[in-house]
Predict the structure of Mitochondrial import receptor subunit TOM22 homolog.
Amino acid sequence: MSSKKGGVSLPDRSGAGNDGIISRFSSSISQTPMVYQGKRVVSDAAFVAKKLLKSTGKAAWIAGTSFLILIVPLIIEMDRDAQLTELEMQQASLLGTPPPPGPK
């Protein structure tokens, strides 16, 4: 038989009826219907959030690519037209001719 010097020896916890009060309390709390329903609500909310995030990402992709394909070329063309009109007005003012009529 070996002897240990110093310290306190704790009782063996291998017995089935020897559970601590904290573990009994936590197991009784974790098995209540309220906890089960709370876990189910959190799981459902996570599922809905994941679906919403996925569909929002798809919508953002569609909107972004549509903008790049349809709107950006239109903006570039309108800017070119405005620069050309400005250049014509500058040339007309340098030559002394009346400026061309602008859009009404």
Remarks:
- The mean pLDDT is 81.
- The radius of gyration is 39 Å.
